[in-house]
């Protein structure tokens, strides 16, 4: 009995593999689900990617709630969403997602003011961009709190309603930094790995509970010109435009894709890391400009960061 079950499981693995390859040739737009009249909650919606996603959801008839710590950023997003579709509801809340009590409180407010959340987009993020010894301790903690730990609070706030209806979607904006480590990004990469691990584990829990209606998507984009990584250098792969990335993310969400890497080539990172000998992977990292990428990073505060502790130019990689 058991062995025949295993046989069926192997057939299904093969079937999903072939299906995945064939679906590559089917335009995604033919498989888009409707988000009309759904409520989407986007953290970090006062800027960059979060704002671009808010506008796209509104254009598809979804009601939009945005959270951020930046009040004027939120106000701008609200105006843009109204302009994109005056027929949908849009509301903004100043909420620091590192404060879990505030997250629960604000989520309850959203439910009272608008409705239960159908789609949660964990998008808010921060980056320090310094070598380990140059990052103040409290900044390391903050990176983890914003980029990873907050996902526990936001998901716990909205999941009960999704479970009750067996319907919903949880989206985590991670990064290619959640697939591979990189210089001057210890805290950032570690927090993004954490976000990826959280999302993958949650997905297994949902499957285990047979909550097949609650979808999840993890997104791993390369550098985007939003200002968050201002000053970064990208010698081989060009930096991405926020509109392009937002379109790719929407296509992933609307087709219930579990894993969205932007650009596509980034899907190979995890594979390369495991099949190449480690030293070959280091060389590939070097050729792709990995060591220089963050050299002139200034970030959102516009200040050139001094890396005092490690001299970046002593590299003699063999
Ligand atoms: N820009 C890139 O190159 C890049 C690449 C890969 C992944 N990402 C990820 O994409 C997401 C969006 O980034 P972006 O490029 O739009 O950056 P962004 O700086 O434009 O937007 C991030 C937003 O998060 C908000 N935020 C920060 N801390 C917060 C907190 N404690 N509570 C609530 N909101 C908070 C900020 O105010 C800001 O509006 C982030 O998770 C980022 O890590 C960005
Ligand atoms: C807040 O948002 C405004 C409007 O988009 C922007 O000009 C400003 O730089 C943002 N502030 C911070 C600290 O990111």
Give structural notes.
The protein has 318 residues and is an alpha/beta fold. It has one domain: NAD(P)-binding Rossmann-like Domain (Rossmann fold, 3-Layer(aba) Sandwich). The protein contains 9 helices and 7 strands. The chain has a 7-stranded parallel β-sheet, with helices on both faces. Helix 2 links the parallel strand 1 and strand 2. Helix 2 packs across helix 7. The longest helix is centred in the middle third of the chain and has 29 residues. It is globular. It starts with a helix and ends in a 31-residue tail after the last helix. The mean pLDDT is 94. The site of 2-acetamido-2-deoxy-beta-D-glucopyranose has 6 residues, from helix 3.
Average pLDDT taken over every residue? 94
Main β-sheet, spatial strand arrangement:
3-2-1-4-5-6-7
The CATH class assignment is Alpha Beta
CATH fold naming: Rossmann fold
Total DSSP E strands: 7
- Percent range of helical residues: 40-55%
Q: Given the structure, what is the number of helices?
A: 9
Distance between the termini: 54 Å
The radius of gyration computed from the alpha-carbon positions, rounded to a whole number of angstroms, is 20 Å
Q: Supply the CATH superfamily name.
A: NAD(P)-binding Rossmann-like Domain
Taking pLDDT < 50 over at least 5 consecutive residues as the criterion, the unreliable ranges are none
Structural domain tally: 1
Q: Which ions and ligands are bound to the chains?
A: nicotinamide-adenine-dinucleotide, 2-acetamido-2-deoxy-beta-D-glucopyranose
* Largest sheet: number of strands, sense, barrel closure: 7 strands, parallel
Classification by helices and strands: alpha/beta
Could you say which overall geometry the principal axes of the C-alpha atoms support? globular
> From the coordinates shown, what is the CATH architecture?
3-Layer(aba) Sandwich
- Give the amount of beta strand, in percent: 5-15%
What is the H/E string? HEHEHEHEHEHEHEHH
GO cellular component, one term: membrane
Organism: Oppiella nova
Subcellular location: Membrane
Function: Catalyzes the reduction of all-trans-retinal to all-trans-retinol in the presence of NADPH.
């Amino acid at each position: 009995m058991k062995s025949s079950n295993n046989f069926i499981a192997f057939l299904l693995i093969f079937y999903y593999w072939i299906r995945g390859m064939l679906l590559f040739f089917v335009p995604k737009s033919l498989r888009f689900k409707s988000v009309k009249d759904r409520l989407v909650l986007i953290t970090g919606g006062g800027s960059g990617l979060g704002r671009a996603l808010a506008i796209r959801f509104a254009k598809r008839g979804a009601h939009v709630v945005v959270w951020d710590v930046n009040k004027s950023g939120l106000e701008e997003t609200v105006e843009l969403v109204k302009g994109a579709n005056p027929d949908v509801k849009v509301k903004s809340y100043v909420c620091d997602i590192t404060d879990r009590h505030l997250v629960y409180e604000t989520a309850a407010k959203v439910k009272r003011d608008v409705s239960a959340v159908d789609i949660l987009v964990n998008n808010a993020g921060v980056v320090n961009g310094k070598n380990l010894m140059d990052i103040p301790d409290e900044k390391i903690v903050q990176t983890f709190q914003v980029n990873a730990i907050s996902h526990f609070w936001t998901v716990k706030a909205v999941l009960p309603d999704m479970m009750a209806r067996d319907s919903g979607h949880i989206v985590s904006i991670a990064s290619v930094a959640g697939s591979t480590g990189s210089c001057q990004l210890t805290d950032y990469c570690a927090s993004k790995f954490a976000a990826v691990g959280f999302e993958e584990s949650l997905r297994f829990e949902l499957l285990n509970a047979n909550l097949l209606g609650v979808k999840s998507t993890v997104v791993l984009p390369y550098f985007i010109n939003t200002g968050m990584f201002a000053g970064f250098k990208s010698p081989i792969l060009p930096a991405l435009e926020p509109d392009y990335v937002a379109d790719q993310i929407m296509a992933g969400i609307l087709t219930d894709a579990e894993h969205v890497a932007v650009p596509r080539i980034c899907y190979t990172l995890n594979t390369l890391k495991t099949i190449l000998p480690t030293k070959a992977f280091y060389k590939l990292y070097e050729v792709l400009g990995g060591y220089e990428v963050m050299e002139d990073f200034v970030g959102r505060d516009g200040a050139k960061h001094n890396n005092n502790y490690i001299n970046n130019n002593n590299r003699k990689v063999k």
